[in-house]
């Protein structure tokens, strides 16, 4: 069953197209079969796969340790793993499939990576430095179909979902980069806030979360992981039912349906009432707080009346809801959206506070690079790189 799930994920009709690549530059038009990355396996799946090939659980644990603790980039370096095992692993898997295409470093330590996938699509991953540790923002899809009208990612329709291996590998690539710096730095937090709607790529997301959380591997705990969604209410409920218990952030961005539907077309399928029902489900089924994200857009949703409406919407849930106010990161193609003035943002914050709402204004990272989700990627695509 577990294996089936893995092979379904990696070999199903949709993904097979992405795995059996036509590598024109290497094969001159000949099809070259790419093996899947072993990063897509949870530890249980690896143990089951190795058992099928006649290898003990202890060997699977050794390989897992090499992957996530010793951070091997190739199988032959696993020098205490027996050679038959290395051979069989090499027959079926590779470790790395992503290539660094370019990197932008900001003065505050934020680093934005643009990775090239095996089928040449480009994705973004961002490393951020905080007082509490190092967080990585991962991408879950190539493009996004949700079409939010303020977002750079929404400009580029979804080409495909990422596999769980490709999401895990983003973390590993960043960790390998940190290892190279030799300062003993470890990725301590993950935010699933890059390009794409994570709950629209459910299987890959949940597998990814199981892999990075495992205590014998990267051991990044659920309280250190935040998944952000545009509010697919039915999927939020399904996600809560998995028991993965990571932090959840919902992109609300407007306090009423009339306004929300103008900027987020997904609001037609999941209006605010449905979202609030899923918020209640989260609060009933976890002992955690939930975050509502709210981009402040000049003269659109940033007035006092909007803050009051938002406070009313949150109502009795106020002890367990955090509002995260986000300064808008201007996107060239969406010139009609502008960032609210600092004073307006502070005023909005004050009104919420006076209503007893827990809230903060998101500190910006990488102000001097293309830091909003999808910006670097869309710029590179426009330049035809
Ligand atoms: N698709 C998911 C997660 C990725 S986007 C979601 O929408 O929640 C992560 C956050 O960045 C979301 O809250 C999104 O609305 C916000 N965002 C998108 N474009 C932005 C921009 N130009 N400036 C500031 N925040 C932006
Ligand atoms: Fe997709 Fe999120 Fe951008 Fe909306 S804000 S288009 S859901 S990535």
Protein model, in words:
The chain is α/β, with parallel strands linked by helices and 385 residues long. The protein has two domains: 2-92, DNA polymerase, domain 1 (Orthogonal Bundle), CATH 1.10.150.530; 99-382, Alpha-Beta Barrel (TIM Barrel), CATH 3.20.20.70. Helix content is 38%, strand content 18%. It contains 14 helices and 14 strands. The protein has helices at residues 2-11, 13-19, 24-27, 43-52, 57-68, 83-92, 164-181, 202-213, 233-241, 257-263, 272-285, 304-314, 342-354, 375-382, and strands spanning 20-22, 31-33, 99-105, 111-116, 122-130, 133-137, 141-142, 160-161, 189-192, 225-229, 247-251, 290-296, 321-327, 358-361. It has a ten-stranded mixed beta sheet, sandwiched between helices. Helix 9 links the parallel strand 10 (225-229) and strand 11. Helix 7 packs parallel to helix 8 and helix 9 runs parallel beside helix 11. The site of S-adenosyl-L-homocysteine has 17 residues, from strand 10 and strand 12.
Distance between the termini: 42 Å
| Helix coverage percent | 25-40%
Per CATH, the superfamily of the largest domain is Aldolase class I
**CATH architectural designation of the largest domain:** Alpha-Beta Barrel
CATH topology of the largest domain: TIM Barrel
Cα Rg: 22 Å
The distinct bound ligands, ions and cofactors come out as:
S-adenosyl-L-homocysteine, iron/sulfur cluster
If strands are numbered along the chain, what order do they take across the biggest sheet?
Answer: 3-4-5-6-9-10-11-12-13-14
- List SSEs in N-to-C order: HHEHEHHHEEEEEEHEHEHEHHEHEHEH
Major sheet size, sense and barrel closure = 10 strands, mixed
| Beta strands, count | 14
Domain module tally: 2
The CATH class assignment of the largest domain is Alpha Beta
- Beta strand %: 15-25%
> What structural class do the secondary elements suggest?
alpha/beta
Low-confidence stretches: 1-30
- Figure out the total of helices: 14
Write down the overall mean pLDDT.
89
Envelope shape: elongated
